[in-house]
């Protein structure tokens, strides 16, 4: 099959070619619950750029060359002898984690912390290819209203945004404020989910005019330019108290300190983006009683819930398609901020 493979790391992200488009061996069914999916769409994520940089080397064991791509959807191509939940030809979206279902975390539905798992595109071959090896437990059959290439980025970008905003929505009341930092690939989904799940006023922050325009399209009630004065702007909008919830899809640079500064006392700061550090004196944690919450993708049931919102038209992805052989162009466009919403590779 054809695939775009990562052969070497590039810490500075200066190479013209991050991945190489070439022929590789087809995946094989080895276990009774294995499923091979013919890829209809593979999302291009900022995490993929972090993988190219080598940031994940200390977190996972993977040998180069391998195939990136952890946001995948397509059609069932082949199944193991024990598979009963899907059949060849079914359109499916893939939860990013493949789990056995036997460990205690799996049985509690806590997929992201399963002790017996693999993560295609992170620590195993992923979906920058024509075919993907996954497991039956990871698959959700798509309704006829949704096509694989249109939903692939939901499996990480959408699911991660959903998990964080769902947590926030549980304590947000009418008349309260939720700030979304970063209105790009994840943020534009988070804004829509907040609108679907709660009645808080939504404030979107982005440094790009295109991001703020997208945020407005997605239902943000206020748009604030990230120009160094965003904390003051948030304070003015919230009557000087700050927001009850701040969801940070950036997680690096000045976004962290400013995100915490615009979180009101007793409020919640949800960190989704990564690359930076959270540094706060313990006395400030005590006196402000702010809660800092980490977010790691999401569970299988949460992906089912997100697909239900998409099926009803309450959440829509903004995507830009690239042929698989143009994976390098998609990665460079993402790196240089030239993509509105999410990029999707289509074999």
TrEMBL record:
<keyword id="KW-0560">Oxidoreductase</keyword>
<dbReference type="InterPro" id="IPR036291">
    <property type="entry name" value="NAD(P)-bd_dom_sf"/>
</dbReference>
<keyword id="KW-0479">Metal-binding</keyword>
<dbReference type="GO" id="GO:0008270">
    <property type="term" value="F:zinc ion binding"/>
</dbReference>
<dbReference type="GO" id="GO:0004022">
    <property type="term" value="F:alcohol dehydrogenase (NAD+) activity"/>
</dbReference>
<keyword id="KW-0862">Zinc</keyword>
<dbReference type="Pfam" id="PF00107">
    <property type="entry name" value="ADH_zinc_N"/>
</dbReference>
<dbReference type="InterPro" id="IPR011032">
    <property type="entry name" value="GroES-like_sf"/>
</dbReference>
<dbReference type="Pfam" id="PF08240">
    <property type="entry name" value="ADH_N"/>
</dbReference>
<feature type="domain" description="Enoyl reductase (ER)">
    <location>
        <begin position="11"/>
        <end position="345"/>
    </location>
</feature>
<comment type="similarity">
    <text>Belongs to the zinc-containing alcohol dehydrogenase family.</text>
</comment>
<protein>
    <recommendedName>
        <fullName>alcohol dehydrogenase</fullName>
        <ecNumber>1.1.1.1</ecNumber>
    </recommendedName>
</protein>
<dbReference type="InterPro" id="IPR020843">
    <property type="entry name" value="ER"/>
</dbReference>
<dbReference type="InterPro" id="IPR013154">
    <property type="entry name" value="ADH-like_N"/>
</dbReference>
<dbReference type="InterPro" id="IPR002328">
    <property type="entry name" value="ADH_Zn_CS"/>
</dbReference>
<dbReference type="InterPro" id="IPR013149">
    <property type="entry name" value="ADH-like_C"/>
</dbReference>
């Amino acid at each position: 099959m054809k695939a775009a493979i990562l052969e070497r790391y590039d810490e500075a992200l200066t190479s013209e070619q991050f991945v190489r488009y070439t022929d590789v061996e087809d995946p094989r069914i080895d276990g009774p619950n294995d499923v091979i999916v013919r890829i209809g769409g593979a999302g291009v994520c900022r995490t993929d750029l972090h993988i190219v940089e080598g940031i994940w080397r200390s977190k996972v064991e993977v040998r180069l060359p391998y195939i990136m791509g952890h946001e995948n959807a397509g059609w069932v191509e082949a199944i193991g002898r024990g598979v009963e939940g899907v059949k060849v030809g079914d359109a499916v979206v893939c939860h990013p984690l493949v789990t056995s279902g036997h460990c205690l975390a799996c049985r509690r539905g806590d997929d992201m912390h399963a002790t017996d798992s693999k993560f295609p595109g992170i620590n195993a071959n992923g979906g920058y290819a024509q075919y993907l090896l996954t497991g039956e437990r990871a698959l959700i059959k798509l309704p006829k209203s949704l096509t694989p290439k249109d939903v692939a980025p939901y499996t990480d970008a959408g699911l991660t945004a959903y998990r964080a905003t769902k947590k926030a929505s549980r304590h947000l009341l009418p008349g309260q404020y939720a700030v979304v930092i970063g209105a790009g690939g994840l943020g534009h989904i988070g804004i829509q989910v907040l609108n679907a799940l709660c009645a808080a006023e939504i404030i979107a922050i982005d440094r790009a005019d295109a991001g703020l325009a997208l945020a407005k399209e997605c239902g943000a009630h206020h748009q604030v330019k990230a120009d160094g004065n965003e904390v003051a702007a948030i304070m003015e909008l919230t009557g000087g108290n700050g927001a009850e919830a701040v969801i940070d899809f950036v997680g690096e640079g000045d976004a962290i300190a400013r995100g915490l500064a615009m979180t009101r006392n007793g409020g919640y700061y949800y960190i989704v983006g990564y690359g930076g550090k959270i540094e706060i004196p313990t006395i400030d944690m005590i006196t402000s009683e702010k809660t800092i919450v980490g977010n790691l993708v999401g569970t299988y049931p949460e992906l089912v819930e997100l697909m239900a919102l998409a099926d009803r038209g309450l959440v829509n992805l903004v995507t830009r398609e690239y042929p698989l052989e143009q994976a390098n162009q998609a990665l460079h466009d993402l790196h240089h901020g030239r993509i509105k919403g999410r990029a999707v590779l289509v074999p």
